[in-house]
Amino acid sequence: MPDMDLITAVVRRSRADDTLQAALDAGAPGITYFWARGTGVKENLGYAGTLIEGEKQVLWVVTQRADTEKVVKAIANAGNLTLPGEGFAYVQPVTHAVGFIPPED
Asked: How far apart are CA 73 and CA 50, in angstroms?
């Protein structure tokens, strides 16, 4: 089994389609996603927080480790994740997987 990572990204619903497509274009072999609602930054920003969209989309992407950084950067750019309240992403190592078919080179 190749070294793999799980990328979890939470993005604004209005940026979800672009972010999903950017991840695929960057080499994500597939994406599992679902809608969610979050709290946190929005409530701590006062009036500015009222401008933050509460509806989010969560993306789960399993990548081969060699592709992880490229996919994370694509997600961060498409999702505007460097801005407060836009969402976030993190990476976890995958120690075991069943059914994952790595893309052909």
From this structure: 27
Q: Across the strands, what pairs with 87?
A: 11
In the chain, % of residues over pLDDT 70:
77
Sheet holding 87-94, edge to edge: 32-37, 55-64, 4-12, 87-94
Residue 58: which H helix or E strand, with range? strand 55-64
Tell me the CA end-to-end span of the chain in Å, nearest whole number: 15
| 13-45 tens-digit pLDDT | 889 999 999 999 999 999 999 988 766 655 566
Closest to 23 in 3D by CA, of 32, 14, 12: 32
Q: Is the pTM of this model over 0.85?
A: no
Q: How many CA atoms lie within 13 A of 37 on its CB side?
A: 2
